[in-house]
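YM 10:42: LITAF domain-containing protein sequence, as discussed on the call
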Amino acid sequence: MGKDAPPPYEQAASPNIGFNVPANPPAPAHTFVQGSGQPIYAPSGASIVVTNTPVVQVAFGPQPQPVTCPYCHQQTTSKIITEASSRTHIIAVVLCLIGCIPCCLIPYCMDSCQNRNHYCSSCSAYLGMYNDGGNRW
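YM 10:58: structure's back
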């Protein structure tokens, strides 16, 4: 090889030229989640705990209902706090724009324009929401 000859292919193809990188770096520690076939990578020495706990989603309704809180694990009845949704504000703005200024407060009094947020009555953690309008908006 002459002075102006390019480096050999192995050296030119290596993106780590000039760095002290081992030729065969250790493979990352990984484990497979049962049924998924996808590896979970973790730093070496770290432990991975895989549980087969199913995720249960509760369909909340308009009334308080018995729940098991996923945060404090207490069996309790949810408490409901209603609040105006973005749909409530949009309807009020539209009513103002079309000239029904006294009527713009009506959506704030209608249950169908309010979201009902369910909270744990023991630890006050947010559990979910019920929207009376469903997927219409």
